[in-house]
Amino acid sequence: MERKQPMLEIKNLTVWYGSINAVKGIDVSINRGEIVTLIGANGAGKSSTIRAIAGLVKGCGGSIAFTGKDGRVTQLLGKQPEAMVRQGIAISPEGRRILPHLTTEENLLLGAYTLSDKAQISENMEYAYSLFPRLKERRRQKGGTLSGGEQQMLAVGRSLMSSPELLMLDEPSLGLAPILVDEVFEIIKTINTEGRTILLVEQNALAALKIAAKAYVLEVGSITIQGTGGELLANPKVKEAYLGG
Amino acid sequence: MDANMFMQHFINALGLGSLYGLIAIGYTMVYGILRLINFAHGDIFMLGAYFVFFATVQYKLPWALGAFIAVSGTIVCGLLVDRVAYRPLRGAPRISALISAIGVSFFIENLAVVVFSGMPRPVVQPPLLMEAFSLGGIRLVPLAIMVPAISFIIVAALLWMIYRTKSGLAMRSISFDIETTRLMGVSVDRIIAMAFAIGSGLAAIAGIMWALRYPRVEPFMGIMPGFKAFIAAVFGGIGSVPGAMLGGLSLGFVEIMSVAFFPRLSGYRDAFAFLLLVVILLVKPTGLMGEKLEDKI
Ligand SMILES: Nc1ncnc2c1ncn2[C@@H]1O[C@H](COP(=O)(O)OP(=O)(O)OP(=O)(O)O)[C@@H](O)[C@H]1O
Ligand SMILES: [Mg+2]
After folding, report:
1. Ligand 2 centroid from CA A170, angstroms
2. Could you please report the per-residue DSSP string of A93-125?
């Protein structure tokens, strides 16, 4: 079989904040349909990587090539966030970033900003509600009054609203009760089996590695270990540092 | 004061107040998104009045066409101000944009003196709008009714746009969290331009109606109404569109009624606006309908 072009191919990515080198030339490749996870300690550069893909950081170098369904390759590095969204990438950012003064429904609609097909928008909204029925009950409630867990669901639901091909989730389980954590990972798996590619950044390494096809360990800006989810789960170094021994 | 007199003043206040409100909306929309006081906004209003003067008095175009040209021309000027004076400073400290705003304001005023000459020019009112008629014993001209009516229709349309359309949603979202709004695929520069266009368009409409009410134009005519409309925006709660209209109406009523009831105070007419500003800042600094702005990320 012919080797397929990865959906997202990151090569030698560097991120600088002034004189701070947060990401030091990493390579990451994500194939269509996979769940790929990026794990690492606080400050390792996970969010910086995601923010670079999204076009939110100015000081970055290297290459981020995105291959769409039609096979067209787009260089995302140096592009604005709206270019990313229009390519079919959506993000659930670190810290949820729900708009507190907008209702649940308005937050979701904002996620569908790039779509103009009304039927598609309401279909996506129904899909988000079917994954998170709690959101439907709270549709008219202001985002700021939702519980932390509900806000997290809303952030993930919102990222689905633009019909993305690639979903980037930055710590979707952060601050959730254990039972909800399991539920969120179940939902991520569901979203993936229904055809979306996922780049997952997580502190909860065990849960992330279990569902990931491929995983990267990031340490102070560099990738130190990589492999399949299973390989990393079995890796003694990963076990010791990230899986609690 | 009899009831008829009172009604006269009431309608007068409604007219003046809604004009303040229309101008105030431009301040409040730009401030809501950029946290920038667009000092040039009063001068944009002045341009609207001048454009309609040239179109109708100088070039003898029909009023409707003249108004259309004036509004379009003013929108272009408003967009130009954003593009040239504010957009290059988007990443810079807020004070830089503020200084730029003051500079643009002086620039437009002085350019107007050079191009239009500093001489006040009389506006010829369309006779149709000035034919007095009487309604329940009150003598009115159609213009007195037209001004608040047009203003309210426009504000209603704007509120619909802000609360019922996608661009409106993006505006409300940007005013809280620009970065997240961008992550949802919104082109922030486009939405900002839209806010400037709407604000300038409303200022032009206010300028046209102002030129009809007080039939003359001069290069500095935007300063005082601009100041007062800014106060109206703060009074109503800066960042809030309904608040801007409410603030404008409040100011219109305070100004007209205080002079109506206490004619001896008429010399202090312009001071009332500032008095109102001091009072609201002491009692409720966020304004009548304002939200806490510290929440801004
Ligand atoms: N805006 C910024 N300015 C300066 N330094 C920054 C900025 N954002 C991140 N950094 C630094 O870059 C490094 C990587 O940060 P990043 O947010 O990517 O880490 P992370 O892996 O996502 O960590 P966490 O798990 O805590 O979210 C950190 O040392 C951080 O202090
Ligand atoms: Mg992070």
Report:
1. 7
2. -TT----TTSBHHHHHHHHTTT---HHHHHHHH
The amino acid present at B35, given as its one-letter code, is R
Cα–ligand 1 centroid distance for A53 (angstroms): 15
- Nearest Cβ partner of B182 from A81, A109, A111? A81
A69 lies within 8 A of chain B by CB: no
- Cα B53 to chain center, whole Å? 18
Are A110 and B179 inside 8 Å of each other by CB? no
Ligand 1 site, residue A204, Cβ cutoff 6 A: no
Question: Residue A90 burial (CB < 10 Å; 0-12/13-18/19+)?
Answer: buried
Taking domain A1-80+198-245, whether its CATH number is 3.90.550.10 is answered by no
Answer yes or no: is the C-beta of A45 below 6 A from any ligand 1 atom. yes
Alpha carbon distance B228, B273 (integer Å): 6
Dist CA A236 CA A225 (whole Å): 11
A54 lines ligand 1 (CB under 6 A): no
DSSP class of A59: S
Ligand 1 pocket member A19 (CB < 6 A): no
Print pLDDT tens along chain A (245 aa).
445 789 999 999 999 999 999 999 999 999 999 999 999 999 999 999 999 999 999 889 999 999 998 889 999 998 999 999 999 999 999 999 999 999 999 999 999 999 999 999 999 999 999 999 999 999 999 999 999 899 999 999 999 999 999 999 999 998 888 888 999 999 999 999 999 999 999 989 999 999 999 999 999 999 999 999 999 999 999 999 888 76
User: Which residues of B are less than 8 Å from A81 in CB distance?
Assistant: 182-183, 185
Domain ranges in chain A are: 1-80+198-245
Q: In this predicted complex, what is the ipTM?
A: 0.93
